[in-house]
Amino acid sequence: MADAPRDYYGLLGVRKDATAEELKRAYRKLARELHPDVNPDPAAQDRFKAVTTAYEVLSDPEKRRVVDLGGDPLSQAGAAAGGGSPFGGFGGFGDVFEAFFGNGGPMAGGRGRRSRVRPGADALLQLSLTLEEAAFGVRREVVVDTAIACDKCHGNGCAPGTSPRTCPTCGGAGEIQSVQRSFLGQVMTTRACSACGGTGEQIASPCSQCGAEGRVRARRTKTVDVPAGIENGMRIRLAGQGEVGPGGGPAGDLYIEISEQPHETFTRDGADLHCTIGVPMTSAALGSDLVLTTLDDEEKIEIRPGTQSGAVLHLRGKGVPKLRSTTRGDLYVHVEVRTPTRLDEEQEALLRQLAELRSEDVAVTSRAGGLFGKVRDAFRQ
Fold it and tell me: How far apart are the C-alpha atoms of 257 and 224, rounded to whole Å?
């Protein structure tokens, strides 16, 4: 009768849905407790071999799939639990060292020589525009205060006629290696060379203008073409116009962020515009024509007789041009009917006469309908 499959998840003390990172953390914790150099107990050594084998199985996607299907991938290969290398190959061996030292510990290799030339950062400016400028586009000049390549050393940071020299401390490698003793034996550590900052080079004669940086700050003027239909908060990207990097490295990008100023008449909703016009009570009742100045020209607006406050007039194609499109948004005119607050005697008499003609004497109440009933009945006529 075949042996039951081993409980690899149980050996590591994790759930069956554990992630790769959870498996690694569980194995490191057990390795710190059970490693032979830490715990000489024979039982601990046997368990260390078992959990190492379990970690190697579960960290392999194919082997883990066999385990999840109820099989044992090692039994097919003729290996016993805990058999083979106690470190499960290079993957397990590296994780044992990570269990004690973490990432970048004594066994972690150096990053090698670093370049003095590094990319520059992006820059951001704000550009304030009127609604008309944002709607139809505009060409504007902006002042940019960023780092540019040093014109005296052309970015290499050295005084004219000189060049960087090989760092005598690291021999140009950019790294310093040393050997230390630990309970695991001799361990080699690698760190960046402090004499050259890991670049492997030293500048004996720095440029007097940039101080070996390869870049200097300067103020310059750039022309920005703002496209029609751009909106508040949008950004225009000017590639390669940002900060020049250390050592004369490639420049980052310059971003122009649009800040649209409030308009005295219109509010903007994407490509559509909204505005509110005040109409006298008499004009709303009798009807009239008004002239509204739009973004393009003057537009005649018809106020039909009986227009109520809150009515919306829709003018198609009178909004803002849509970005990268040949179409335009619409203009919505919101009507606000204004009731007079000050009347002279003649005006008041005329209004009372009108109210009597329309049976709208709202100052008199009755048991039948009351004040609001009279008002309601009046508007039904």
Answer: 11
